[in-house]
Write the structure tokens for this entry.
Amino acid sequence: MTTTFKVLGPLEVRHGGERVEVPAGLARVLLATLLLRANQTVTVDALVERLWDGRAGNPARARSTLHMVVTRLRQALGEANVVRTATNGYLAEVGPDALDLHRFRALAAEGRCAEALGLWRGEPLSDVRSDALHQEDVEPLREERLVVLERRIEADLAAGRAVDLVPELRALTKAYPLRERFWGQLVLALHRGDRQAEALAEYRAISERLVEELGVDPSQYLRAVHHTVLVGEPAPPAAPPAASTASTAWTALCQLPPETVDFVGREDLCKEAIALLTGRSGGTGVPVVAITGPPGGGKSAWTVRVAHALRDRFPDGQLFVRLDGAGRAPRDPGEVLAELLTAVGVASSAIPDRLEARAAAFRAHVADRAVLLVLDDAASVAQVRHLLPGTPGTAVLISSRRRLSGLPGVRVLRVPPLSPAMALDLLSLMIGADRVAAAGRAVDEVVEVCGGLPLALRIVGARLAARPSLPPAKLAARLVDERRRLDELAAGDLEVRASLEPSYEALAPEAALAFRRLGLLGAVDVASWVVRALTGLDDPEPAVEQLVEANLLEETGADATGEPRYRLHDVLAVYAAEMAAADDPAGNDAVLRAYFGVLTTLAEAASGRTTQSVDEVPLSPVEPSGVLPAREVERLTADGVAWLLAEQVALERAIEATARRGWAVESFRLYERAMRYLDVFVPNDRVIELAGVVERALRDAGEDRWAGRMRYHLAIQHIKASLDDELLGSLAECARGFGRDGDHAAEALALASLAHYGHLHTGVADVALARRAVEAARRSGVRSAACSARRELALMLAHSGRYEEALPHFDETLALCRELGNELAEVQFNHSVARCALQHGDLARAAEASARAVARIDVVDDLRGTGYVTSLAGRVAVATGRPAEGVRLATRAYRIFVEVGEGIGAANAAASIGEGYLALGRPADALAVLEPALREYGEVGTTLEVERMRRAFAEAGAAVGGTGGPAAP
């Protein structure tokens, strides 16, 4: 069944011929807004602006309400629903014949004007209550209808129906007393009905009215009609032309500034703008394109370039006006209209006084002409609204630091920063390609610190061009220092700081506060909650929205938790930090400390929702921050893994920043909460680097207890890559230190780790050491530590040949796992049982325990644990006569270990792959895996696993006729 929508009258939806009731209120406004922009995404922010007529007191709450309105509308439409969810918004997906507005425009484009007008059933959307919708959307629709009506009347005149048209035209001239086309048609209809006296009287009437009310003479069209009445010559043009109809009374002029000679890049964007401004064949509206972007982003240069490319498309002229929107005093639209009227030939004495009259006079002068109007540096929708022409054939190109999304019919194009390649091209044009090539890395550094901002790059280019002997490396070194970067980005009358100041000064106090505080974090992605943490604002959304609208803050999308994320441009971040330092230098430390407290609180909550290993040292206590309400913390971290991954970079930077500022304990608390899960996703070298930074800060601060824990973390991270006697010594020293400090849970885990890794390194199972771990765990009273230590004791007993004696300890470990309700601990237990059973030839138990571990590991979401469990499952599969499955499983594990940088695990998995290929009778495949694995992991320090690799390599080598000796490391 077909679904149809009607907006050219009261809003109407029909499905299968039956009327579908649309709820009154917000749902009706929503559907009308989407239908008027059918098949185009309308952003959530734009819908909030429309539904609440720009008066949403709490935008965040309004967004939530919007989602409910969408749901209610979809339910009401039922099978007629066309509302689709899109990226950051919604759209109405309708076919070409499903919407009366589409049919109206199609018929008008085909010249079937009477049929098109027959689709109108009254005032568009008369039953939809929204001031914004009627002012911004319905008003342009009325203009479209009038243009089509004019064309229909021209067709009727051409068909000889002049007499019948007179009553209709008298009514139209009364309803639209300044619309010259209707007056001209009335004069023609009277003339063709042999009523010349009345025709001339009507011409005099409109001529006098135009002079009195607008201070303008009749248009070329009206003068041509008058001439026809007087001398009986052929009638003037029958319809508003798509191209120029300029007469000798109109002088085409080009006011465009010169193009920038060394303009680079953005060709795709240029083509898009040209297509938008010229591609409305048969349309009845005026195309409007707004070019937006950050200060110094090259908007004006880009706009002028596009305008020059369009000169041949607009032969009646290209008008250019600067609106000074970035300054403290944007130009008054009435003053701008006076300038435009003067440009098109109106004497200053004839320019009307009122703003509306000036706007009407300007529309009258450019009506039916192919004119391009370029408005540079617009301040707001209010400044631009009265400057727009009213008839097809004209087009408007605007540049602005603001997005101007509330302007009816506007298409907004954002100018992105230049790519590194484009930036190098620009510098090459300014200082020469040879000099750029000779500078090497120094020029890359310049490009990086300028962040693709054309103004910054032009300043650098100008300075280098003025001083041919200045090495780019020297300037790069000065620019890298953020404290002096803005001082360096100045040359003559070009200055980045001066370009940024107007946008900052135009901000409301709360938005300015948010901008400054975000500068304290630098050019990084942040979630919206960060603004609240930095500013203390209960509702930071209005401030964020103003920064985004002003192009001082860039939306980068939503993160894994669904939170919107934002970023300051590199140069803007430096400026924001400068403003923060000037505003409240003493208070900035307190602001940052509060932010780090919020970050720690969120990391604590998120970490608590991830799988907890019993082998981890218990977290140090921390006082929760009260900046965010508990319910907000819970909402943000509902998916702990997603939050940690979304904030990974922020957490890394915070760990370093707190350590650098001497806030050692805060740095430690962030590290242990973040890296408990993220150490699998952060490269091992980076984890070690962070751990070293925190350990040194703690040591310098005299925080010996926490410094001891960080040394333990450091040793464990190093061991993941390779194992040696020195690292075992570090573990032993950590255990002794924990014992002296009375940190018995950490002591138990350090002793258990020492027993575990000592066995891997030497092949000797130290049962006594494992018993000491169990005793330390008992003294600590921490059940997770007891579980880990008891499992390690069972393993040491089994590895020392006392398998039966180990079994009760395994049983006790399992009981502890279940008491804790810890899925990962149970996986680790089954993994340990399978290892021991395999070692002692108990293949049935090994297979059973391994299968249990495999079944549970995907549930607990532990990548490293998945690697070890899968690797052992592969080895068990080979041992139980399933070598193909064993190779598959071990290969999966090997890839995981390579990805996370776990050398010990990689050696283990490689050995299992080699053994599996040998069991399959494929020694060449075994060699192909083992030879590079031995080179990479032959020195990881795990004696048993490396020996397995070497044995498999020797056997494979002998099988293919080689020496079978160990591969070169």
Notes: The chain is about 60% helix and 5% strand. The first strand starts at residue 3 and ends at 6.
